[in-house]
């Protein structure tokens, strides 16, 4: 029984990983740069499964295997990711995850983004939310950004304490996997729009203004238009 159960457990894990790779939801958990490692894992699991099948058909004259069979904790380790994947719907981090994380309107020092990279992104007119937040952190006077136009994508986070016409455009930044994800956000002011619901993905076009809050300058994106969109295939941002 143990000999048959081992390859079945490995097969279930291999199929689970392959399914996540095929539908793209593997990107909800890891940085896209490491997807190739999951493909390697699937291939290795396939080789191990085939080796079990070959071993079963060896001539009976071979010496029998000695061991203590398949232990319960081994079964648990193999089945746990599969069961969690089946029971918990695949979805990226959102406002629920922000309950246990600090959303940064200034980039955390743990996440390094070079000033050169930020300048290049801004000059090329393709800066992401991460680029802008990093740029604001590196400047003591944000007045230079007033009037700058941009188009940014993110999900809505309606943080307590903000004015009724203001909410946060947010993204998670992933270096390796969701365990190290850092949330960044930018205040959006849209006085002529009913505030979108939490977790709604939007595309915002507008220009920057600066407000004073608690004695500090805060960059605010004054929206000219807010377009509701679906969740992107890659919901996270990655350090360049």
The share of residues in helices is: 25-40%
Low-confidence stretches: 105-112
Q: Mean pLDDT score, rounded?
A: 78
- What is the name of the CATH architecture of the largest domain? Beta Barrel
Count of separate DSSP helical elements: 5
Top CATH class of the largest domain:
Mainly Beta
Strand order of the largest sheet: 1-2-3-5-4
**The named CATH superfamily of the largest domain:** Nucleic acid-binding proteins
Content of β-strand: 15-25%
Radius of gyration: 24 Å
Q: Major sheet: size, sense and barrel closure?
A: 5 strands, mixed, barrel
Give the termini separation. 50 Å
The helix-and-strand class reads alpha+beta
In N-to-C order, the SSE pattern is: HHHHHEEEEE
Extended strand count: 5
Descriptive account of the structure:
This protein is α+β, with helices and mostly antiparallel strands. The chain is 33% helix and 21% strand. It has a 5-stranded mixed β-barrel with strand order 1-2-3-5-4. Helix 1 (2-23) packs antiparallel against helix 2 (35-56), helix 1 (2-23) packs parallel to helix 3 (72-87) and helix 4 (115-123) packs across helix 5 (129-138). The longest helix has 22 residues, at 2-23. The radius of gyration is 24 Å and the shape is elongated.
